[in-house]
Amino acid sequence: WGTIQSNAAIGVRMSADYVVMSAYNWSSRARMILPDQMPPGQFDFIAKQPDGALEALQAEIKKKLGLVAEREMVQTNVLILRLDHTNAPGLTPSLRPVAQTQSRPGTVLPYRYSFRRIGILVTILESQFRLPVIDQTGLTGTYDIQFPMISRATNLPSDPLEQEKKIFIEQLGLELVESNAPVEMLVVKKIN
To answer: Which terminus in the chain has less CB density within 10 A, N or C?
Structure first.
């Protein structure tokens, strides 16, 4: 696990890519370009000081792991999330917050979120497909989002993206479109 605040970053048993994500305050593994080989193993770290905690962690990563990173616009494969139709059964405007339902082990997607913005779908999809997702839905409110249960072990065709596209259109009224677009990426490089 790891946590980042304005003046601190803490991580326990994290892979090198997640240590870099913490140091650069980067939230999406799908929006990173890594060198061919990352340092193996798991790492613990604490970076806490009144000012510059993340910069200090970046300096340690450079010194101990030989890695640096910078943000760059990169033309890459993406998924575009668009509104297909309204009044879908799995996407309804929220009236008030309610208790969250947790995802079940072995499912492709968490099956219910309440009182959430559409950005939660971007996060889930980027994690699921390891591709940047660009939200073009135009939806700005909070929603109750419900997915049908899909097991990783069964019911999946050879192309999970095709299954996902079908679910999104039928249940959420949203469309996933494969495309290519410029995206801000965290480019990690080895120094030697």
So the answer is: C
